[in-house]
Each structure stands twice: as structure tokens, then as C-alpha cells.
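Sample intake sheet
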Amino acid sequence: MRIPLPRTLALALLPVLALSVTGCAKRGGNKDLPYVARDVGTLYTAAKDRLDRHQYKLAAALFDEVERQHPYSVWARRAQLMGAFSYYLNGDYTESIASAQRFLAVHPGNRDAPYAYYLVGISYYEQIADVTRDQKITQQALDSLGELTRRYPNSRYAADARLKIDLVRDHLAGKEMEIGRFYEGRGQWLAAANRFRAVVDQYQTTTHVPEALMRLTETYLALGLPTEANKSAAVLGANYAGTDWYKRAYELMQDNRDKLAKAQIPAG
């Protein structure tokens, strides 16, 4: 399941680069022919016009053409980032990432660098798959958004990046839980415990921790480690006492104590 990004947010965060080039060029019929040699103003204006019409694929091609035909102009830098944005809006996330990363490679200290990092992060974010599939893209989204918040913690994009980081971490924790439940269902208790322990240790602020602690209680009991099971149940009770997960863990520990007590009664 994808974690959707509202397009209105991305549009709201669009930098000043999107402003049209007033008076730079006249709007002629050639704007529909992206590979015809034209002056930079005409190309950029045509690209912006297509973007405004929501013709994102053609807009991206025209912005790319600005960069190709006029690589040393100030418009090339602007077009590079606008092309990345157009690819993003068209759902061409791989192209968006490549364009934004190329911008960062050439202009690492540019004032629009935070937005380029943001485009990379949300382009990965849009591709996040449900927890039953490989989570490589999810990790790339986490890394990219984390880089933005580290480099530009006070930028206008950092707050949204932090929110998405929390959602991505919760998603990764969900993947660990899914694998852990699979192992538990097959009676592979140690492998299951390792997955649940990873959630507790690495994703402490996610919504999956209460269940992970309850599952640890289950798996430790199955492994014959009642002391470790009791520790997990105690942590669960101290932090999530009102949850059904604690109720289940408490019942498990109580049943285990009853069994141990019965096993210690000498035969009459």
C-alpha cells in the first residue's frame, strides 16, 4: 500500500522558479515542437505554459530542452529543477529523481538545493509499496528525507519531511512485524523474536511497538525463556497498560505461571 502524498502540498511548495518569464519571449506556434532550435526565453515560456496546462510530460521535455540547447544560461539551472518537478507531477519518479540529483551535483550550494532534496525524497516516498513487498524504495525514501532534514533543518520543506520520516519508519516497522509473524506462524521462534526485538529497539516511536512486545512475550515463552518473557510483558505494562496487547501478554504470563506452579506440585 502506497503512502500517498497530496499533490496540493507539492504544488504549494513549488519554488519561485515556476514564475513565468514575462516579456522574454512571444508565444508562437513553435512551442509545441520541443526539439526545434529556439531561443531560451521561448523554450522556457513554452515549458511553463505546458506545466500550467497540466501537460506534465511535454513540460518536462521542454524544460529538458532548455537545458540541452542553452546549458550555460541562467535558465538552464531553473529549467533543470522545473523539469524534475514536472516529471514528479507526471508520475515519472525515476526521471524526477535523476533530474533533481543532477541539479544537486552541478549546483550543490544553490538556494533551491533544499527543494531538490525534497523532490528526491518525495519521489521515493510516492513509490513505497505495501509491506508484503521489498522495501528498498522505502529505505531510500527514509535516507533521502533524512538527508534533507540534516542539511536544511530550518528549510520550508523540513517539517513535511519529518512527518514523512515518521510514516516511513512506521512502514518499515510494519515490514519487520510481517516477517516476524511469518516466522512465528512456522514455529521459528528465534527468527521471529529477532524481528520483534528489532522493532522494539530500532522503531521505538512507531505504532507497532505494543504488538512487538506482546509477540516477544509469546516467542520467549515458546523458547523456554520465561524471565525474558516477563521483561517484555513488564515493559508493555509500563508503557501500554491500557492496550489489548498488554491484556494478552498478561494472560500469557499468568497461564505460564499456573503451568509452572502445577509442574512443581509433588505427586501424592
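Comment: Residues 1-9, 15-34 have pLDDT under 50 and may be disordered. The chain is about 70% helix and 0% strand.
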